[in-house]
Amino acid sequence: MSDPVTLHDVYLARQRIAGQAARTPLLLSQNLSARFDAEVYLKLETMQPSGAFKLRGALNKIASLSPEQLERGVTTASTGNHGRAVAWAAKRLGARAIVCLSELVPANKVAAIEALGAEARVIGRSQDDAFIEARRLVDEEGMALIEPFDDPLIAAGQGTIGLELMEDVPDLDRVLIGLSGGGLLGGVGRALKGINPGIHVSGVSMQEGAAMIESLAAGHPVDVEEEATFADSLGGGIGLHNRCTFELVREVMDDHYQVSETAIARAMLHFFEQEKMLVEGAAVVGLAAIDEHTIDIRGEKVALIVSGNGVDAATLMRARAMLDYPER
Q1: Is there a catalytic annotation at residue 43?
Q2: What is the pLDDT of residues 115-158, one digit of tens each?
């Protein structure tokens, strides 16, 4: 089977989204570098205009649509960050957008989508439920479906992160990437390994409801019940008819870790207290994995993809309460 995403596709995506998605900073964390006796870099996708990496893929896909498709509008189902990205990209490119979400998506993410001018429709208890409405809009109103992950153009857009990592730190040893539907890990992994096949790509998921990992273990896509988690952006299934990211992740991922809610909460509080960054649970799972699984990264150059900033004060307070942190 031919590659669903090639390194050439990623370079084309970079050209397509140039001047719209940001080239985000890569910062050396002095605190984490000293703690783990390594060079630990933070790739700050929180600095995207929409607040998360998802903007890269959404822009790449929507910019590829015909004028007629843009006129009919776009729709998607999202756990939040992809919805914000679609809303931002659609507004930038002059298209109407309807974003379908499940009841598990935090209210702050729903509000952020609406603030960008898109219509947010909250439907059902899972992303699969939300997708039923999105597909109805495609079938009945002719809107273009912007997949959250399972589309070569989406994965190639996310892969532009990998190009930036290789340009900034060409001798990078390892990258830890949050794993959900696989668009981020698949795209970035393809770019990284296309340039340096020896780089180590680690995926990280939450302990419960990790659809991609259960699917990989089964050898084919499977349904997994969604669970509430601090890493809510990693929720949702991969689609029983997955056509792109399942194979892509299987090819480019070297190993995988699942992390507990306590580890995610601890990592969120580290970013807030030590890095002075307010970021969501899905953005810190790389640190959670190193900490909880005692991954030996001594002497390595390691990048953590800080994927999004979609977190509210109430969630941070819950994380603090779980760890019984005193107020500061």
Answers
A1: no
A2: 999 999 999 888 778 989 999 999 999 999 999 999 999 999 99
pLDDT per residue as tens digits for the range 32-89: 999 999 999 999 999 999 999 999 999 999 999 999 999 999 999 986 788 999 999 9
What is the domain extent for residue 128? Answer: 55-145
Question: CA 307 to CA 243: how far, in whole Å?
Answer: 24
One domain for residues 299 and 171: yes
CA atoms within 13 A on the CB side of 125: 5
The type of residue at 15 is Q
Distance CA 255, CA 49 (A): 31
What the block records as the tokens of 221 is 């896509």
Among 83, 114, 145, the domain-final residue is: 145
The neighbouring-strand residues paired with 101 are 78, 122
Q: Which of 29, 102, 126, 307 is catalytic?
A: 307
Catalytic residue among 54, 109, 193, 301: 54
- Cβ distance 14 to 60 under 8 Å? no
Question: Which residues have CB under 8 Å from 105's CB, separation 6+?
Answer: 78, 79, 80, 83, 122, 232
Same domain, 172 and 97: no
**Is residue 43 assigned to a domain?**
yes
Whether residues 69 and 201 share a domain: the answer is no
Asked about 61 being catalytic, the answer comes back as: no
Q: Note whether residue 100 is domain-resident.
A: yes
The C-alpha atoms of residue 254 and residue 273 are separated, in whole angstroms, by 31
- DSSP, residue by residue, 147-191: -SSSSHHHHHHHHHHHHHHHHH-TT--EEEEE-SSSHHHHHHHHH
Distance CA 23, CA 106 (A): 27
**What is the number of domains present in the chain?**
2
The C-alpha atoms of residue 272 and residue 279 are separated, in whole angstroms, by: 8
Q: Judge if 254 and 289 occupy the same domain.
A: yes
Q: How far is CA 155 from the centre of its chain?
A: 10
Contact 187, 35 (CB under 8 A): no
Decide: 158 and 183 in contact? Cβ < 8 Å.
yes
Q: Judge whether 117 lies within some domain.
A: yes
